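User: What would this chain look like folded?
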Amino acid sequence: MIFGRVKPLDAILATAERKSLHRTLGWFQLTLFGIGCVIGTGIFVLTAAGAQKAGPGLMLAFAIAGAICIVAALCYAEIAAMIPVAGSAYTYTYSTMGELLAWTVGWALILEYAVAASAVAVGWSGYFSGTILNQFLGIHLPAWLSAAPLALGGAPGGFINLPAVLIAGLITWLLMIGTTESARVNAVLVAIKVVALTAFIALTLPSESFDAGKFNPFLPAGVFGGFGTGVGAVGAAATIFFAYVGFDAVSTAAEETKNPQRNVPIGLIGSLLFCTVFYILVAAGAIGTIGGQPIMGPNGIPFPTGSEELARQCALPQYADALVCSNEALAHVLRAIGWSKVGNMLGIAAFLALPSVILILMFGQTRIFFVMSRDGLLPERLSTVHPKWKTPHVVTALTGVGVAFAAAFLPVGQLADIANAGTLYAFMMVAIAVMILRRTARDHKRDFRTPALWLVGPLTIVGCVFLFFNLPSAAMLVLPIWGAIGLVIYFAYSRAHSHVGRGIVDSGEPLDPPLH
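Assistant: Here's the prediction, encoded as structure tokens.
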């Protein structure tokens, strides 16, 4: 039963064939597109969390996460070029491994998008409170209004992260009334982010404050911190994997690429290599100037990010200026080495650019809801379109409430770890789906074929599982608990209402006989 109800690939491809896209993209455009998609949230908001897990080994963590992303991206590229339809990993799984596993992937993607949006909202809150309110307006927001409760890993005196709630509410409202960002505005925001990070590198690496001695010890928590601890270079890689999410958008452009067999891998690998080197240089600049050693517990293991113990330590005077305690790490570094105005400008760049990321993530979740609803696995009324705004206001409002709630009460490090758990599961399933399609759909057109799939596919699976088991144990537990809730919903509602189960497919022609 677990591999039952496979959605016919011919029906999915028939839908895709109705769209004919002009091939205009070369390798250079793809590479720039990839850089724009990847550089963003993670590097602005997770530098401090990564340093607390790995210290200077954060640079190695970026390399590990980037390498796993490259092999995953190559798998994504083949299947996205072959099945260029909405739904991403959910649709790919449906066409190869059946409805039940596709449901688990779609359910994990819902978690990923919502929690990732919450993480970005919390990151934005740090720059808003630190740069806009504190530096420019001289307003010091009290801890109880700007941080999660201490019992949940927030700051002493924290009760609710109000700025994070407000930005989540604002984005939800914009999505409900139909406001979307244009490609031109998004391109400007991407340029702002890249310029800001380039300025950071240029000001920190040649700085007089830069001291190679601050990289010693390079791996204070080791390469492997231990199962379920989420520390060490690999534990940090599992967290900052969040900084690379977005590359799958490049793979979906395969059908619009000239000579995809050559240009897609150049664009994917080129953009990911560029971003990896960029991230390593940013980490080197931050750690080499003000230091990035983690705050260690009595057992010689770094205090967990988002933990009550770390929050108490960060409240002590000796750690007031520590990188690992900052809510706006990169702006904080520039202020500490005498570039306060540039640091404030970087804070403004994050303040301006991060809301667009929240919008993209929340919009992405509504797309997953739509596709699952279209397949009958979720109630159609969830995707009801507002008569005036012409948007799925019900599902958008529900998403907004969930995003705001998580952003209000959880710190950014915990949210990133939870989001990564769902992402890693989806990436693993994509790799499996590509290998299955090589056997079950040998003759179907492929604009791009993953080179050495016999090696790249298993490497992707092993890499995703490897990072998953290096997440903190609490983050690992969220995925199976969330999955169990999803299975209850599937067997209570979705299985009986599934269009494939009732013999209805996208092509409009009934299956004979209907699947059960």
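The mean pLDDT is 85. If you want, I can go into more detail on any region.
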